[in-house]
Amino acid sequence: MQPDTDQVIAEIDALPDHSIYGRVSSVLGMLVEVGGVEKRLSVGGRCRVITRGGRVVPCEVVGFRAGKALLMPFGTLDDIGLGCRAEVAEGQPAITPTTGWLGRVVNALGEPIDGKGPLPQGPRPTPIRASPPPAHARRRVGGKIDLGVRAINTFLTCCKGQRMGIFAGSGVGKSVLMSMLAKYTAAQVSVIGLIGERGREVQEFLEADLGPEGLARSVVVVATSDEPPLMRRQAAYMTMAVAEFFRDEGQDVLCLMDSVTRFAMAQREIGLSAGEPPTTKGYPPTVFAELPRLLERAGPGTGEGTISGLFTVLVEGGDMEEPIADAVRGILDGHIVMERRIGERGRYPAINILRSVSRTMPGCNTEEQNLLVTRARRLMAAYADMEEMIRLGAYRRGSDSMVDEAIHFQPALENFLRQGKDERSDLGTGYSELAAILGMPAVGSAG
């Protein structure tokens, strides 16, 4: 009982002995203007606005204008009017997670939304908006991490602490791929952020895609598309904060976030409301400043733990050069490109191996593994170059020995990349199967 008593005493000591408050002077769009306390506030600070009906609406300071603080709410603005009380919240927002959070679903504020009762509270606070570990103090990425998906394990091998982007349009199978990664990964803990997700798909993802097995070792953070932009942005920060807690406990964490694009859209709404100028495709400058601050939080820490991050990016019409996709690709350590045309011919996961890359892969593989993967890539590239002519019957066998080989191996390679959502494949099996297909000596999974 002693630790619980100490925690209660610490919480009581942290309670403020007085409150500082101002008054709402204007409400416009998503912004609430508050006067009287602007000198006690800073950007990123918190306030609690008391509505006329007595409801408490948490808000965040997003800027200042004409000597007044500009707030954005985490809830709706209903019942907020001129003169409503706005109390200043002391301290920085933080959560107190424990291993008891595994198997739970929380919202962007760290509150349980799965109907399983209150969350257990840990002994120490974890800041929601932490800075990335110092570059000079971080450990290097670790050894290979088994993600359980054959195409990624073999052709896009990831290391512990690596960050990868999953680039795809809507309806190409990102959610199913994420559920496979969460269920089959060798990482000890999965932290999944569903940012701006459709409300009806949340329960479907939890029950049908992730399932009890995957949920048992996961923490899921949810902010649906109908929630205010501040909640959607906060859900991304919350996802990283929970992952950082487990990393600091010395565990290998797989952090999955769907999607970074909706995080950027939420930040765009916030920035434009605060009066920022729109730049590329309507995105204000803070979007491109916040992306590295968020994504750099993943990776190796200063201790034994790691966060291996996979972040989905929505690309409209397969346009990999659109601003958010281009910015994210430059920050991360590789990218996985999913294409609709591959899914349309019935091969899932619909990963285009030739357009995807893992920047850490050559260094973590043995020479034999790199030779095996390079040969398979060359065969797939040769087939892709001549695919139209082959389908039209315009290619004559014997014209090019490499293309002849590619045609011979194409059905087996295509079948190798196909994997059902209930099928798991480990690192060693992937290399062995690929070596058998190409008639090359078997190689191990170590590297």
TrEMBL record:
EC top class named in words: translocase
Region described as Disordered: spans on this chain: 115-139
Gene Ontology CC: bacterial-type flagellum; cytoplasm; type III protein secretion system complex
PROSITE patterns in the record: ATPASE_ALPHA_BETA (PS00152)
Domain AAA+ ATPase: 160-343
Matching PANTHER family: ATP SYNTHASE, SPI-1 TYPE 3 SECRETION SYSTEM ATPASE
Role this protein plays: Probable catalytic subunit of a protein translocase for flagellum-specific export, or a proton translocase involved in local circuits at the flagellum.
Annotated family: Belongs to the ATPase alpha/beta chains family.
Name of this protein: Flagellum-specific ATP synthase
Organism expressing this protein natively: Rhodospirillum centenum (strain ATCC 51521 / SW)
Lineage per the UniProt record: Bacteria, Pseudomonadati, Pseudomonadota, Alphaproteobacteria, Rhodospirillales
